[in-house]
Design brief:
The protein has 202 residues and is mainly alpha-helical. The protein is 85% helix and 0% strand. It has eight helices and no strands.
C-alpha cells in the first residue's frame, strides 16, 4: 500500500510539477503569477494541514476513496517542490542551445522537447531522487485519513497489542529499508546518466 501510494502520488506530482515549471518560466504574467502563488502557498504551509484541507475539499467536490484523495493531496504538495526542481534544471541549460535550435529552423516547442528537456531531466535526477525519498516518508501522513499503509497499520496494531515501542520500531525499519532501496536505485540511475553523458562528450 505504501509503495502504491508513493508511486501514484509521485507520478501525478511529476506531471503537476512539469506544468507548473513551464508556467514559472513563461513570459505570460498570469501563468507566472499562478505558478508563483501555488509554490508559495504549498511550500509555506505544513503538509498535514494541506492534506486535511485538500482531502476534505476533494471529497466535497467528488466522492473518492481515502487512498485516491490522499494520493492526490500528496501529489499537489510534492508538485510544488518538483516544479522548482524542473524549473532550475531547465534554466541551467545554456540558453545558446535554444538559439542554435531556432537558427536551424526548429520551433521553440520542438527544441524544448528534443534538446532542452533531455538535458534538464539528467540534471534533475539527483534532486528528484531526494524528493522521491521525502515523498515516501510523507506518505505516512495519509494514515490519518484511514489508509492502511505502513504507519496506518502500525497505529492499528499498537492499539491492539499494547506494544507501541516495538510496533513503531518495526514500522520504522520498514521505512528505512524502503528508503535504502530508493536511494540505491536513484544513485544507480544518476551514475548511468553520468556514464552516458561521458560517452556523449567523448
Amino acid at each position: 500500500m505504501t509503495l502504491k501510494l508513493t508511486t501514484i502520488s509521485l507520478l501525478l506530482a511529476m506531471v503537476i510539477g512539469l506544468v507548473i515549471a513551464f508556467c514559472k518560466i513563461s513570459n505570460n504574467r498570469i501563468l507566472f503569477g499562478i505558478a508563483q502563488l501555488y509554490i508559495t502557498v504549498i511550500r509555506g504551509t505544513p503538509l498535514i494541514v494541506q492534506l486535511m484541507f485538500l482531502y476534505f475539499g476533494i471529497i466535497k467536490l467528488v466522492v473518492l476513496p481515502a487512498f485516491w484523495a490522499g494520493a492526490l493531496a500528496l501529489a499537489i504538495h510534492a508538485g510544488a517542490y518538483i516544479a522548482e526542481i524542473f524549473r532550475g534544471a531547465i534554466q541551467s541549460v545554456n540558453p545558446g542551445q535554444m538559439e542554435a535550435a531556432s537558427s536551424l529552423g526548429m520551433s521553440k516547442t520542438l527544441a524544448m522537447r528534443r534538446i532542452i528537456m533531455p538535458q534538464a531531466f539528467k540534471r534533475a535526477v539527483p534532486p528528484l531522487g531526494n524528493q522521491f525519498i521525502i515523498g515516501l516518508k510523507d506518505s505516512s501522513l495519509v494514515a490519518y485519513l484511514g489508509v492502511p499503509e505502513i504507519y496506518g497499520t502500525a497505529l492499528t496494531e499498537q492499539a491492539a497489542n499494547y506494544m507501541p515501542l516495538e510496533t513503531y520500531l518495526v514500522a520504522g525499519m520498514y521505512y528505512l529499508v524502503l528508503v535504502i532501496i530508493f536511494t540505491y536505485l536513484a544513485n544507480k540511475l544518476e551514475l548511468k546518466l553520468d556514464v552516458e553523458k561521458g560517452e556523449e562528450v567523448s
